[in-house]
Amino acid sequence: MSSPLYLAIDTTHLDAALTLAQKVRHHVGGLKLGLEFFCANGHHGVHEMAKLGLPIFLDLKLHDIPNTVAKAIQALRPLEPAILTVHAAGGRAMLEEAKAAAGTSTKVIAVTVLTSLDAPDLDDIGVGGTPHDQVVRLAALARQSGVDGIVCSGQEVKAARKAWPGGFYVVPGVRPANGAAGDQKRIVTPAQAMTDGASILVVGRPISQSPDPDLAAREIEATL
Ligand SMILES: O=c1ccn([C@@H]2O[C@H](COP(=O)(O)O)[C@@H](O)[C@H]2O)c(=O)[nH]1
Question: What are the angstrom distances between the C-alpha of 75 and each of 40, 72, 103, 209?
Answer without folding.
Answer: 17, 5, 12, 32
